[in-house]
């Protein structure tokens, strides 16, 4: 299949690049970028929320059940996130630690850190509602990380890690789904378009902050087709059989804004490599024709169908009817893609992000 063929070719290109980049094929140096630094929400949280008093946690079964040790890590998935798969492809054999975890210390910090927190957003108020780590605090932690890194690596090496690292930014879904659409103080006074502009203004200044702190390679995810999430179908899709088109239209409007804001940033900030990863289209295509992509079910989550009532939106050990094989499902729970769907997203991330690492 096309996507798979592409991936093989890209992996091969990466392998060549790794050899020329590191000179010696040493295990510890065999990564295409020295570090990965991640900011965002549940799409990229690998366990920070485990250490917070929030209900948005994934540190219990059946989360993580398709890992070899079947351990729930805090990832909102049965297995790997798209960004985990990307890290694998870039040659990482261990992942940069969740910043709030005990592992985030000493030499472990040399390969980066993850500051993401489920239910966080561009809008700090989104995170306040759920006791998640707001974007401004994720940035504050990153500054703290920089000084810890300098202490471990020395300031010259730390500066080069910071400059060569790949930065991943993934916010926005929680701003709309967990804040805007359900918060009358927002949706009565602002149109989705106005709220999107508000978020994109925050995005622009966030990227400028990262740039001023030394970041030069940044990948940003677009919004997924939010109207196709099992949760939004249940909550907002009463009159439609398929995806909630109004919500998908809002997501596409937001994606246009973040794309043009990114083009401006690229012009304004010398030496910055920045790319928007479009996750709308690849996910929408899979949902529109699951069987051609090897899936059986695209309308409900494997765990926590989201069909009956609000409480059943969440996946937990008692969720009734959890499917036996998540590989056949596009969605693992009522909001998050399965590892199998994440593989497809990671394939397209790689293609869209190749300029960041060349
Ligand atoms: C799960 O489903 C996938 C895709 O249909 C299939 O390849 C795999 O063999 C299944 N696994 C099990 C344990 O049935």
Automatic annotation (TrEMBL):
This is GDSL esterase/lipase APG. InterPro entries: GDSL, GDSL_lipolytic_enzyme, SGNH_hydro_sf, SGNH_plant_lipase-like. Coiled coil: none annotated. Keywords: Signal. Residues 1-25 form the signal peptide. The keyword Metal-binding does not apply. It comes from Apium graveolens. GO terms for molecular function: hydrolase activity, acting on ester bonds. GO terms for cellular component: apoplast. It comes from the Eukaryota. Belongs to the 'GDSL' lipolytic enzyme family. The keyword Signal applies.
